[in-house]
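Morning!

This is the sequence you dropped in the shared folder:
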Amino acid sequence: MVFYDPTGEKYGIPTYPYKFAPAGMATRRQLRDRDLRPGGQEPAAQILWRRGKRVAYLYLIDHALPKRTATPAQRAAIDKALLARRTCPTCRQVKPYYIRHSLGECFDCTPGGAQ
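The structure's back. Tokens below.
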């Protein structure tokens, strides 16, 4: 196993190959699925794969904190921003898709109706 270094001697941090992570550790995405976040802790280990070109950092689940939830005011601001991304500045219609930045307007207002 090329990337098996549980002591961190070779890579400076305990390193495991893909699917060999020890129990009690999780990636950010795995923490998010459990409604947790790293909470400021440094990565405890890493997983390397694809000849070392891909890396995923592992965090201790015991030290993870609960995810923060947005306040009602923050949710309202997010909803307002997302609505603005769907509103065409030319025709002022709210579209069921986000307006492309490269076009600057909805498909109906774009010359040639670019898709």
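Headline: The chain has two domains: 15-66, 69-115.

More detail when I'm at my desk.
O.
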